[in-house]
Structures are given as C-alpha cells and as structure tokens.
Amino acid sequence: MKILVTGGTGRIGANLVKCLLEKGHDIRSFVYPGDASRANKLDSYERIETIVGDLRNLDDVKRAVEGVDAIYHLAAAFGGPFDNLQYLNINGMGTLNILECARSELPNLHRLVYASTEAIYWRLTEKGRFFEEPITEEMVSRYHHMPYFLTKWIGEELCMTYHHQYGVPTTVFRFATVVEPGEFLNADGLPGRFLFSPVYNRHKDQTSDDPEEQKMIETIKSLWTGDEKFLLSRNPDGRAHKENFCDVRDIVQGLVLGIEKDAAVGEEFTLGGAAIFDREKIIPYLSERYKLDYVDAKLPQPNYFDFDLSKIKTLLGYQPQHDLESILDTAEAMRRGEDVGIIPTGIRWGTA
C-alpha cells in the first residue's frame, strides 16, 4: 500500500515508517516546516516521499493525501512553541482537514488511524491521576485540560464522527506515555524520571495552605542532602506511585495492527505497554542496578493508574514486549553506539 504518515519524522512516526517499509509498503511522510531539523531523518531509506506542509493549510493536506491507500495521522502540536489557538487549529482543524480530504478524495481508503492520548482519561476536576481500578476505554473524562488534552480529544471525536456519519474507516489509538529508549537516560546514564533532584527542585520553593500537603513538602525538603538519589514516590494515602508507559516499539506494533486487522475499524483502543512503573517494585531494583541509594516520600500530587488492555489484546492480538528492564538494556546499548533498530527522536523545533 501507499501510506501517508503525518508526523513521519517524529519519535513514533519515524519508527513506524521504518517498520512499514520493512513490510513492503511505500510511504509518504508529511513534515511540519517548523520541524526542519528532523526533515531529512529518513533520507537513507528508499520508497519514501517527503512533503513539507502545514495541517492548517487545506491545499497542503490535499497534496499529502492524494492517491494514498491508508493514513496514519500522528502529527500534532505537542510541547512546541504554540498557544491555545494554535493548538486548536493544528490538532482540531488540522484533523478536520485530513478527514475532509479523505472523505472527498479517497473513496476506497483502506484505513485512517488517528493518534489520540491517554490524557483523555485524566479528570480535569480532580487533582492528579488516581484510579483504583485499571482504566478501560469507557472511562473517558467529561472535561479535559487545555490545550493538548482537549484538542486531541476533539480530533478523536471528529474521527469517530466521520467514521459513523460518512463511512471513513477509522481506528483510534490512545497512546500511553511513550518511551523512546534513547531519551530515557540522562547525561549521567541514569533513568532521570525516577531521580529525586527534579522532585526536590519542583517543591523546594513551594508552600501550601493545606497542612497535610505542607507537611509532605517539608519532608521532601528535609530529605535533600545535595547528593542525587532515586525517589520511591508515594501518593498522599501512602501507596507507591504507579504508571503504565509504552515503549515506542510496542506503539509501532499496535499501529501496524491497526491497518492489518479488520476488527480495528470503528474502534478506540488504549495502546499501553508492558512498562508498569510501580515505584514499590522498581525503585529497589534501580537502586541495586545503578548502585545508588533512594529516599522514600509522599508527594502532594496523586499518581496511580494502570490500563486494562484486554480490548486491544483480544480484538487485535496485541502483545506488548518491552518492560522496564528491556527499555534500560536498549537505552544503555544505544549509549554504547549499538544498532538496536530504533530511530532516535532527534531535536524538535530546530531550524537547521
């Protein structure tokens, strides 16, 4: 098939493109002009056509979709130099442009796969992320944070509306937080997400009117000695923080299944991974692996959730492979310069 991948040079897009090429597909990559530093990321691969354009420009989108058999719509405003209006125009109207062109120009489209986010489950009216039971696809929050969470939800709603109203064969994947192993270790070769110093720096100048929160903040300050450690972070109720992340290789596995399995059409799936970051279990493991002590502290912001992946496993046969140990092994191999089959993310929003 001829497949359009918007955001084809991003951390997910580039690795998806590599996999699709290996499966014999031809690729058209749609690249945002502001992402010029990564525009040539795929130049060493054959059977790739690159179009530089803006999702907000209907003519650019028409050029991108012309003659393709399937579309992966991964591109979005995320973490870049955008304000709320730009987020809505790119993630909302940009998605509408893709859908309108698919509807009018591609009557025989095999599949349109939309990249949504786990963030549509986060409850705007509640502090933090705390879920007693594994999150299922039905547990979408009523309200969403601006700008990214809300605008990605708008894109998902548009995609499913175009499927049910106009017959566009759409599949939605709600990505868990994505791990590209090349970004997982800091300059000292440590998994920075689990270190104490970022948490200390975030709280050292904070105060709270809530006595219990203030007590937690004071404890965090008192534990800092000036030497780096891991942090076994806990929720206010004492339970250790727990999150579900997804290695980019597992994300790619799910995305490919989205065009290979007929059962994907008209469905939304949570695309989570095997990387369950339960601090109670992984912090002692990391402490031993990296010979670095850890401290134990409650944080004011709750963080406790896991995903129920039974739907994607049952309907698509998805089987995530990469847990924390796999991610760390791969990250360390990449630091040694070994070829692990992953295209690194690169620098976003560059100009060169």
Strand count, sense and barrel status of the largest sheet are: 7 strands, parallel
Task: Average the pLDDT over all residues and give the rounded result.
Answer: 95
For the record, give the distance between the C-alpha atoms at the N and C termini, rounded to a whole number.
32 Å
The helix-strand sequence is: EHEEHEHEEHEEHHEEHEEHEEHH
| Share of helix, binned | 25-40%
The CATH architecture of the domain at 2-178 and 246-274 and 307-335 is 3-Layer(aba) Sandwich
Rg, rounded, reads 21 Å
- Assign the CATH superfamily of the domain at 2-178 and 246-274 and 307-335: NAD(P)-binding Rossmann-like Domain
| CATH topology name of the domain at 2-178 and 246-274 and 307-335 | Rossmann fold
Low-confidence stretches: none
How would you classify the helix and strand content by structural class?
Answer: alpha/beta
Number of strands: 14
User: Number of helical segments?
Assistant: 10
General form: globular
Identify the strand order in the major beta sheet. 3-2-1-4-5-7-11
Name the CATH class of the domain at 2-178 and 246-274 and 307-335: Alpha Beta
